[in-house]
Amino acid sequence: MKIRLSGGVVASGRHAWIARPSGPRRLLDQADARPGTPVALGPERAPAGDVANAVRELSLLVADGGAVAAGAGVDLGGGFRSARLDGARGDQRDAVLAALRTVGLHGADRLGERAGVLVALFGPAVTRRVGAAAARAAEEGRWAALHLASAASDVLGPEQLERVLALEAPEGVDLTPGGSPSVLAGYLRRVLEQVSPPRRLALILDLWERVAERRTGLARRDARLATQSRRDRVADLRKRRRHDDDEHILWQVRIDLENEQPSLADIARWTPGRWYWHERLQRVFADAIAATALLRTAAAVADHGLEDGLERSAPVLRAAATLMPDWAAGKAARRVPGLTGLPVRPGAYVRDLARRLAAGKPMDAKFAAYTRPRLACARDFALVVIEDVGRVMGDMVGTHDDLLREWSPSLQSWREGAGYGRPPAEWDGIAPWTGPMLGDLEPLRRRLTPDQDPATAETAADLLWYADLVDALARLYGHERAQPTPGTGDPWFDHDPPPAGEPLTPRLDSVMGAVSGAAQLVALGGVPPGAPRTWAALTAGLMSATAIAEALTGDFAVPAPLAALDGAAVPGTPLRLKIARSARDVAGWADYMGNCIAGPAYVEEAREGRSGLAGLYDADGLLVVNAELVALRPASRGWRVAEIAARFNDAPDEALEQRFREWVAALPGAVRDETEQAPDELPPVRPARRRAAPRLVEEVGPALGELVLRSWAQAAPEALGALSAVAGTGPDAALVRLRRFGGPQLTGAVGRALDEGATDLVRLWTASGLRPLRSALDALDPALRGRFDQLPLLLGEPPLPKTLRRLVKLPAVADAYSLDLVARRVRRAIGLLAVRDDPVIARAFAKPTAEPLLCALSIATTCAAPDIRLVSVAPPRTTSVPGYPATTLEDEEGPWQRALPAARELGTDTAVFWDEIAEHGLRVPESWLAHGGWAALWSRAHTHRR
């Protein structure tokens, strides 16, 4: 039996066993197991003991590294190796990296020869230095750097990969959670292919720093929130404080009326005096200070540990503790039957902690058990105190402004211990509250003189202490400070504001999330800026494209059977179905999921009602899976799941996928709404039939196919001859092999072919300029081209819209599309060799060369300004290029202007061409001029103008 494995490999003469609860089971038919199932491959007549041991080792491997690790061909002992059946997602780098993480560097020999492992991870251009750097990363457990380097090997050279492999992530922070290296590699190619090669490394390194900063912030937020109780005590505290307020009011009524048992009428006639309002202000002020102290202490303990965090917080706790006398602390801690055991005011816990610290007791487990519960309710206290401040201000502003202006508790001791969270010189107050409280006084920032101590000018009426409370709560949630929410009413600040940014703005929560978000923008029509120096500049340039704004507009024509299921539970799962209603819905999904569901092809189908885009949410409201649902033909037959994927295009849970597919298959199809006609009535006159919507494949396919066949016959022999030398295969297999190469793989293959003399640079340049599909599109009827404005996308990089994918699968078009695609990529490989100053280019220019080739490569090196030895062949701010015959850079009909499109195909940003000419002049690598200088080189090129 021949077993087809992942990657298209066929294992002949070997047999496969899979793990089952009853023990190893031999596969007699590949259809007996799901695609991608891990198997143990071994000899047919292997002893039962060896089979059992191999399957046991396979199960351990899969348990530790996932099913993907089995695809690495790990030695299982007894002549067995792991493998996966055909149909698995990802490529060999995913399998090798997963297996390497499982077996460790000491067990790397189980994966086969070292060279094979390195090629799987980094491609055929891998060097010994890269291998050594990878070994160090694996030994030190820097798997995120290894993950990123493996993915980036398609867009970076070996020396650049060494820089990536040397990266270190912050301790305890994973920068690459979720997503396989192969998926990340595809996203990186899409994002960086239009960026000049020298800038790619800088962008990846900057991305690493930005994601590390973000992930560190998220880890800090998680650690701070972990100091708080998982149980929400806010409602309990509200009841406790309300009871305490009621008791206090009744006590005040009895004192004022001098009556221990006042009647209801007496209470109704009672009016609170000035002392009552003053006491309410003082209580809520002291509570806010105490809650702030608890919050800051909880954050310090999370950041620095219990002992160091408490030592740092001791001045804050002491300052807050002075605002609550002993009798008030005892009253606040008094238990009330039926209500929460927490004290009614946070100052009681602040005093407890300050007293324990002053006692100097050892900070052992007993001390920790005393401290942590008192910090665990800091958030709950803060939330109820913030509410109380708003309630007091609402009761007093406008009715008791004179009392507010008279109230002036001292802040001196608090500021000595706590300092300032916000710069007082920038504090304008909270206008609706501080205005009545300050009266004729100006806001704090205007009262302060440059050399004045803020504590001597600040008053309680400035309410900076209230902002400190909300800021401390915001820091517990990982923010630098709370964000103002002007015009929204109290609390006037948001302690946990949502991330800013439009839909589709790439997230920095992980490397995969950031790159997939940027790739989504490219797929929607975003174009990288000319020379981005940072990741932020790159994504800002992509977001500025008009196509992005257009992609976020428009509602979907959701088919009625799918619309009726919106919000329905998926049987047999804990998930609920949500149907996307607009482009913004799927933009939000794509932003979180890191997939292409907001791409033009999916959105176009959904807008026309030809498909439904769905999200599956778990009980916590978290998006788990995206799916595309399309109608069977005819539509009355029902529905099917066309595509389904988890986050970052990972495979969803097998059981979940199977149940969802079965459920969708059982959904009713679309039913045409027809009204019955009365028998005595004449049939209505049928309206004129509307013209069918244009069908690209049916209308363009025949005409384009005929034109392609003519162009193919003229171009194919010469093009395939040169390209097969690069692929190292026969002409029939060259295009398939070259399309599978990543960027560095293809660049290495081009360099080797030129170095070994399998082809020459002029021949390869000429072959890569033969584009049968482009020629056929140029010859296509202009009326057809005008009707289908998507056709120019055929001359760009994948992915293509769905209709164009169908078009290029036509037998008459498929090979021509592959040739055009490979030719463009070969051009980019040549450009990369040139800006690296690879010796194969210099040796090629020592022989007769071609004028278009020389002009294009000269423009490429001038624009890229690589860090190599460059020589000016034309002075700055001059357009005349020396040599015979003489040429000028600005001549529209001259060779330099004609070479600009070819230079762009080399991966060059020609927008900076004239800036570089003005500053440096036309420059080429010094190595190109080794045989007679520029004049001789130009002469050799002019004699051969192809």
Number of strands: 17
Q: How many independent structural domains?
A: 5
- Specify the number of helices: 43
Q: How would you state the average pLDDT, rounded?
A: 86
Region (Disordered): 481-503
Task: Provide key terms for this protein.
53% helix, 5-stranded antiparallel sheet, 4-stranded antiparallel sheet, 5 domains, alpha+beta, 946 residues
Question: What do you see in this structure?
Answer:
53% of the residues lie in helices and 8% in strands. The radius of gyration is 36 Å and the shape is globular. The protein contains 43 helices and 17 strands. The chain has 946 residues and is α+β, with helices and mostly antiparallel strands.
Map the helices and strands:
Blueprint: E1 3-4, E2 10-11, E3 15-20, E4 23-26, E5 38-42, H1 48-65, E6 75-77, E7 80-84, H2 92-103, H3 114-122, H4 128-139, H5 143-152, H6 158-165, H7 181-192, H8 197-225, H9 234-257, H10 264-269, H11 274-304, H12 306-321, H13 326-333, H14 347-359, H15 365-375, H16 378-396, H17 401-406, H18 412-418, H19 431-438, H20 444-447, H21 454-457, H22 464-476, E8 483-484, E9 493-494, H23 511-523, H24 535-543, H25 546-551, H26 560-563, E10 576-579, H27 583-593, H28 600-607, E11 611-617, E12 623-631, E13 639-645, H29 654-665, H30 696-727, H31 731-740, H32 743-755, H33 761-768, H34 772-779, H35 782-787, H36 802-808, H37 811-835, H38 839-845, H39 851-864, E14 870-874, E15 880-881, E16 887-888, H40 895-898, H41 900-905, H42 913-919, E17 922-925, H43 933-942
Antiparallel strand pairs: 1-2, 3-4, 3-5, 5-7, 6-7, 8-9, 10-11, 11-12, 12-13, 14-17, 15-16
Helix pairs in contact: 2-3, 4-6, 5-6, 5-7, 7-23, 8-11, 11-12, 11-16, 11-22, 12-14, 12-18, 16-22, 23-27, 30-31, 30-33, 30-34, 30-36, 30-37, 31-37, 32-37, 33-37, 39-43
Region (Disordered): 481-503
